[in-house]
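Design job #97: recover the sequence.
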């Protein structure tokens, strides 16, 4: 086959996008899956190259790099940012590192993808937004990784709301429930330390449901009233070799839990709709149960992460005799993101949201358009979380019931 025929048959590979990632635990593994897979499913305008993985423990990060498909390993994020083969820095480390790494990477001329929540404080998030604005003037872009926006069912729900299919929004009702901390002898990990994590269930799970609710509704939460609780106030230190077994933990040194175990808050949206949110790590039996319902004047939508290929839709304009919630199987080629995957009915999973995140991010980088959610979107979520903590601190929401 002559050279030109070959080129026409097999288009050239798209330009390389060198990625450097900080952190290799759960989110690092999930993001690696997205970076490895997206270019094999979608026609990306940039081809991600897993250039380098960064972690403090040289042996552990070396093993993780080999296992997850990264070409090199670094033990200092500053060295990662300085690499010429890294065009984008993906931050999958605990929240206390997000601001320092993102600002340094943007100022060094790299694009940035930062895991949620954007930062541990509003002040840090504001500094990150300023850095993103500086960088955008130089053609470098930043995005925050609220991956649940990229579930096909969630993206399709947003389309239906935007088309007016549920009419005027009246209610948002969303919960995100896990139970991995319900054992009081589970060790005191970084997620239970305010300096490392910023907050507990509120920032970890609450950030997701605030962003997702606002994204689907197409409007923001403007006021809240809240309760938070720490059910278990101290736990065995991991260094003491404690396990989840009561016997070992009984002798292990214990340390204080300095974040919330659960948050419960209500709020109003800009249009006056009422919203309720619940985030807990103590909902025994619920493993990763994000459930959302929007009620409007013309209909309702409901979603359950444990049935993530489905969206329930009630069209209230239908005759009552035949109306009711019906299940939409969100696997048709015309549904968001499905064009790259399997025929109708074969279904996707949690991990696919990270490939969708890479697809959208690479398209934005290639065209120079701002990827969403932006750091400013992340800052707005941080402000909602801060208002929740302020309200919970006042305990203003509780009126004693006369006994
Ligand atoms: C918490 O356990 C967690 O890992 C969150 O940090 C992630 O953002 C969520 O997608 C799954 O649960």
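Job complete. Output follows.
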């Amino acid at each position: 086959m002559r050279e030109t025929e070959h080129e026409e048959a097999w288009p050239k590979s798209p330009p390389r996008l060198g990625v450097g990632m900080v952190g290799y635990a759960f989110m690092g593994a999930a993001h690696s899956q997205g970076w490895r897979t997206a270019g094999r499913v979608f026609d990306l305008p940039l081809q991600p190259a897993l250039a380098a993985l960064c972690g403090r423990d040289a042996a552990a990060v070396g093993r993780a790099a080999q296992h997850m498909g990264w070409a090199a390993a670094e033990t200092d994020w500053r060295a990662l940012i300085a690499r010429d083969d890294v065009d984008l820095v993906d931050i999958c480390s605990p929240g206390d590192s997000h601001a320092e790494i993102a600002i340094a990477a943007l100022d060094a001329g790299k694009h940035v993808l930062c895991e949620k929540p954007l930062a541990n404080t509003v002040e840090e998030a504001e500094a990150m937004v300023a850095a993103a604005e500086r960088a955008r003037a130089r053609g470098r872009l930043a995005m925050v990784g609220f991956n649940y926006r990229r579930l096909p069912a969630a993206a399709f729900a947003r389309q239906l709301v935007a088309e007016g299919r549920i009419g005027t929004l009246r209610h948002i009702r969303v919960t995100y429930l896990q139970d991995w901390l319900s054992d009081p002898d589970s060790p005191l990990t970084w997620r239970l330390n305010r300096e490392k994590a910023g907050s507990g269930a509120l920032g970890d799970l609450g950030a997701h449901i605030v962003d997702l609710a606002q994204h689907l509704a197409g409007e923001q939460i403007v006021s809240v009233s809240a309760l938070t609780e720490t059910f278990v106030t101290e736990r065995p230190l991991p260094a003491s070799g404690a396990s989840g077994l009561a016997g070992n933990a009984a002798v292990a040194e214990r340390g204080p839990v300095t974040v919330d175990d659960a948050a419960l808050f209500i709020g109003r949206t800009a249009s006056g709709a009422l919203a309720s949110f619940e985030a807990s790590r103590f909902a025994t039996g619920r493993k990763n149960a994000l459930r959302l319902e929007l009620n409007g004047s013309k209909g309702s939508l409901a979603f359950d992460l444990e049935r993530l290929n489905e969206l329930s839709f009630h069209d209230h304009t239908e005759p009552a005799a035949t109306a009711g919630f019906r299940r939409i199987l969100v696997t048709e080629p015309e549904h968001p993101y499905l064009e790259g995957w399997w025929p109708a009915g074969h279904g996707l999973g949690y991990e696919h949201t990270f490939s969708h995140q890479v697809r959208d991010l690479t398209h934005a980088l290639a065209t120079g358009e701002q990827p969403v959610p932006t750091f400013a979107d992340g800052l707005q979520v941080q402000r909602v979380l801060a208002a929740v903590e302020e309200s919970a601190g006042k305990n203003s929401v509780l009126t004693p019931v006369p006994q």
